[in-house]
Structure formats: C-alpha cells, structure tokens
C-alpha cells in the first residue's frame, strides 16, 4: 500500500509539473512582450479564476479550515456573505483604474498617484508579507507529505520548494497559473472523494447530530468581545478587509487579472471567485465536521497540525 501511495503521489506531482511546463512553453516568445510579463494574454478566464482561487485556498486552507472547524466550530462560515459583497467591489471599483493603466507592477500606481517613497515602502511591505506567507504555504504541503510518508519535515520542505522552483523556472509565470488551476481541481476532487466516502459510512443526520452534541455547530455568536476566537463582527468585517488585501491590493492576484485581454474578462475572473470561494469553504466546513464525527477525541494526535 505504501508503494502504491508513493507511486500515485509521485505521478500526480510529475503530471502537474509537466503540464505547467508544457503550457508555459506553449506559444513562448523569445522576445517577451508586455503581455508576457503579465503572464500571457492568451490564458483562459476560467484558468485564471481557478488560479486566483487556489492562490489563497490551497494547502494552507486545506489543512487549516477543516482543523479550525474540528477544534472551534463553524463560525467561519460568516466569510461567505462578504464574498458576494467584496468581490463585486473589487471587480468594479478597484480593478478598472489599475487595468486601464496597464501596469506591470501594482505598486507603480502608488508612484504615479503619490511619490516613489510610497511605492518603495509598499513594495517592501509586500515582500515581507510574501516571504512570511510563502513560509506557511511551504510548511502546509510539506507537513502533509512528512506525516503521510514518514520522512523528516525539513526534507519534505526542500522537496516541495525545489519542485515548485523547477516548474516555474522552466515554464515561467504561465506555468504557475495552469499548475495552480490544476491543483485547485485536484483539491476539489479530493474533498469530494472524502465527503462521498464519509456519506457511505454515516448519514448527514449522524454527522450533524454528533457535531451538535460536541458544540461544533455554531452560527449565531454576535458577541463583541476581542478575547474570543470567532464572532460575527470580526468575521464579517474582517473578512472584507482580508478579501480586499488579497484580491484587490496584492501583486500576485492583480498580475493575473492583468494577463487577460479585456477588462470584462478580468472582472469575470474576480466575480467567479465569489461562488468558487463559497463552494470551497463549504466543502472545508463539511470535511471539518466529518473529521470531528470520525475522531471526536483522537488519542493518536500529537499536535493540532496532525488533525488532517
């Protein structure tokens, strides 16, 4: 069984990397154009939408959100209303002026609007934020690989980082879009498989009853208390700030929007992320409830990182 797991895992990793490199090399020009710097204008809208969605709903959230539901309940579902409020604001207020300027760097706007000092400071903050996020983004899949195949964590981190660096180096930014889009589909497929397999063992009533008894079905906590983990107001309004910071004022996502040939396609990409993020979050919540139903108190867990 272990050899089969290794073969499947290795095959998936090689396939996703090869697809990214192939797509990156396809229609590659020896003389980069403005569109090439912005990932390439021939990328499909749906692929970019999946890529944007997977940028911040990848291994980090795949481990984090079900774990959060397992330990603290379903209050995080209040992110969903803000998706349908914030993403249209991003699409119709934040995106048009940036897109019309055809900027390679989002922070170039700050220099044009204010001064070079503003651009420099924002760029430094972005670099620090990206370095910190990348550390977590590497840790999440490396942790899963380490626990699954019983290899040292630092080796798993090196393998994960090396593979990502190789396909981005060979395939360019376009490889990153197609690979992350495929990874998003794989994540959805794995979540769907977990849910289907669980429903073959337990009924929805059994799952929700167990979670209700365990105090995990929490939806209406409106306390204004900064000392509690989750309540409506921090999730609702904090969710809006999070969405704006990730999908409106982030170079990684804005560069993907700019890769599309028209403003309408870019806006469609943003708007598609509302139902996409909603669907993924609901699946994460359901998986968290299933985990609690299966392992209400798992004695083998040595840390919260191992809940998934």
TrEMBL record:
MF-aspect GO terms: symporter activity
Compartment(s): Cell membrane
Main location: membrane
Keywords associated with the record: Cell membrane, Ion transport, Membrane, Sodium, Sodium transport, Transmembrane, Transmembrane helix, Transport
Alphabetical list of InterPro entries matching this protein: Na/Glc_symporter_sf, Na/solute_symporter, Sodium:Solute_Symporter_SSF
GO biological process: sodium ion transport
Pfam families the UniProt entry points to: SSF (PF00474)
Superkingdom field: Eukaryota
TM spans (from-to): 6-22, 43-63, 75-95, 116-139, 151-170, 182-202, 231-249, 270-295
Topology relative to the membrane: Multi-pass membrane protein
A GO-annotated cellular component: plasma membrane
Family: Belongs to the sodium:solute symporter (SSF) (TC 2.A.21) family.
Protein name: Sodium-dependent multivitamin transporter
Organism listed in the record: Panagrolaimus superbus
């Amino acid at each position: 069984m272990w050899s089969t797991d290794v073969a499947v895992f290795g095959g998936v990793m090689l396939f996703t990397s090869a697809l990214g490199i192939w797509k990156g090399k396809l229609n590659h020009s020896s003389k980069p154009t403005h569109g090439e710097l912005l990932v390439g204008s021939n990328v499909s809208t749906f692929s970019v939408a999946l890529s944007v969605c997977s940028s911040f709903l990848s291994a980090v959230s795949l481990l984090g959100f079900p774990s959060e539901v397992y330990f603290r309940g379903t209050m995080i579902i209040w992110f969903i209303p803000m998706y349908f409020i914030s993403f249209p604001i991003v699409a119709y207020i934040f995106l048009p002026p940036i897109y019309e300027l055809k900027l390679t760097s989002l922070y170039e706007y700050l220099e044009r609007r204010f001064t070079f000092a503003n651009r420099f400071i924002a760029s430094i903050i972005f670099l620090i934020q990206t370095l910190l996020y990348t550390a977590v983004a590497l840790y999440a899949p490396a942790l899963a690989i380490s626990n699954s195949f019983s290899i040292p964590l630092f080796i798993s981190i090196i393998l994960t980082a090396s593979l990502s660096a190789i396909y981005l180096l060979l395939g360019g930014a376009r490889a990153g879009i197609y690979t992350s889009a495929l990874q998003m589909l794989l994540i959805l497929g794995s979540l769907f498989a977990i849910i289907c397999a669980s429903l073959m063992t337990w009924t929805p009533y059994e799952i929700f009853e167990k979670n209700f008894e365990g105090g995990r079905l929490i939806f209406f906590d409106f306390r204004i208390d900064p000392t509690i983990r989750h309540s409506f107001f921090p999730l609702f309004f904090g969710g809006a700030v999070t969405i704006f910071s990730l999908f409106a004022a982030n170079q990684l996502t804005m560069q993907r929007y700019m890769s599309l040939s028209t403003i309408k396609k870019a806006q469609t990409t943003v708007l598609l992320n509302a139902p996409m993020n909603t669907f993924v979050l609901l699946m994460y919540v359901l998986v968290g409830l299933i985990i609690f139903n299966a392992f209400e108190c798992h004695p083998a867990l040595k840390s919260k990182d191992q809940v998934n």
